[in-house]
Amino acid sequence: MEDVIAKHTICSHCGEPAEFNTNSELSFCCQGCETVYHFLADNNLHTYYDLDSTPGTTIKQSIERKRFDYLIDKDVQEKLIDFKNAEVASASFNIPNIHCTSCVWLLENLQNLNDGILQGTVNFLKRRLTIVFDTKKTDLRSIVELLTTIGYEPNLKLDQLEEKEQVSIPRDLWLKLGVAGFCFGNIMLFSFPEYLNMSVSDSVDTFKVLFGILNILLAIPVLVYSSIDYLKSAWAAINQKGINLDVPISIGIIALFGRSLYEILSGTGAGYFDSFSGFIFFLLIGKMVQKKTFQGLSFDRDYKSYLPISVLKLINGVERSVSVKTLTIGDEIILRNNELIPCDSILQSDSAIIDYSFITGESTPVTKIYGELIFAGGKILGSQTRMLVSKKVQHSYLTQLWENDAINLTNDKTH
Question: Is the Cα dihedral 183, 189, 190, 196 positive or negative?
């Protein structure tokens, strides 16, 4: 009996506490969850609930079709579509709500909900969905509306409409690593007589001298090419009467090379050119891994990564979804609960509650009244709000603040 009661107190779709009961068998936390549940049932997708009892995501807000009007724009489509020919197109979406095997199963069976979708592939780790669709049967807007309807709204941001600069590892770093690796391997090969501690004879002694000379020749490119960045950096620091991490590294490089050169030329030893070249080789590997890691962390994202692609604009009294890039001074826009303010604007509604925690870090919302200036980056809390654009997106206070921080960060990195 307790199990039956528990079953009726949670949402049959998402598992949240149920407040909206339709009958004795099913319970839902909101109208949106009930709509999705029956939508999947009508399309014979019950397997979604077989993999997990309540795998869905809560859908508290009704779906506004006109929110996605901007996806009709061909320029926007070109930025979001990865591939397109006369009949087939492919697009990738970031879906934050992917969290279980049921989500993956549903998103990879979207063709049962829209016959224009040919294939759906989910990258679970990246929360990314790639959809291949027939352009004659469906379009980007219909796909996004479908995803939003079933609770998997794509995270579409302004930076997706910008050409992203591909940051790659410099070619000269690859070359330096290659030279160091080649010399490292061959120096170890020529050092085998020392590794094996072979007994000294005339023939072996001749080979030791030859291999020693070859090791010197192989170590020179490592010194003058592969390690040159460390030496230059250390020299620059010394000239400025300072010290950095490259100074002790350079001391070690010079000491290893000098000691090894002395031992081979004087005949007192075999030197340490294998350790010298290996030291440089692994230093360069570390530098490459560092660059790759920084790219993966995406520290250099700009303000466009956090602003929405579109906003509702009043045009002759009619609400139209437009790209925020097209907003100009004097445009009247409408923002709803939890929507970000894309540009500096003047409040046209009687009052509004703004959450500025994204900018200031203060969690306490601020109340604004008619005619006050509202800065970009704030979040609307509560009812629908009308605003008059006072600055374009790229000229807003948030943009200037972000760019100034980026400049300061760049200056700090160069010192």
Answer: positive
For residue 309, give the nearest of 339, 278, 265, 331 by alpha carbon: 339
* Residue of 96, 187, 93 whose CA lies nearest to 133: 93
pLDDT at 156 (0 to 100): 78
State the fold for domain 304-410.
2.70.150
What is the per-residue pLDDT for 176?
Answer: 93
How far, in Å, CA of 369 to CA of 348, rounded? Answer: 8
- Spell out the residues 6+ positions from residue 66 whose beta carbon is closer than 8 angstroms to its own: 312, 319, 320, 321
Instruction: Identify the architecture of domain 65-156 in CATH.
Output: 2-Layer Sandwich (3.30)
Q: What is the spatial distance between Cα 52 and Cα 288, in angstroms, rounded to a whole number?
A: 42
HSE toward the beta carbon, residue 284, CA cutoff 13 A:
27
DSSP state of 87: S
β-pair partners for 117: 133
Same fold, 65-156 and 304-410: no
Phi-psi region of 372 (alpha: psi -120 to 50; beta: other; left: phi over 0): beta
The torsion of the CA quartet 184, 190, 191, 194, rounded to 10 degrees, works out to 180
DSSP secondary structure, 291-324, as one string? HHHHHHHTTT--GGGTSBSEEEEEETTEEEEEEG
Task: Please give, one letter per residue, the 3-state secondary structure of 336-352.
Answer: CCCCECCCCEEECCCEE
Q: Give CA–CA dist 29/315, Å, rounded.
A: 36
Question: So what's the pLDDT on residue 94?
Answer: 86
The domain segmentation of the chain, as residue ranges, is 2-51, 65-156, 171-297, 304-410
Q: Residues in the chain with pLDDT < 70?
A: 1-9, 12-25, 28-36, 44-66, 157-168, 198-206, 295-306, 397, 399-415
C-beta neighbour count of 255 within 10 angstroms? 12
CB-based burial label for 299 (10 Å; 0-12, 13-18, 19+)? exposed
Helix, coil or strand: residue 382: coil
pLDDT at 21: 53
Residue with tokens 């790229």: 394
pLDDT of residue 178: 93
Average pLDDT over all residues of the chain: 78
Show the tokens assigned to 216.
């010197």
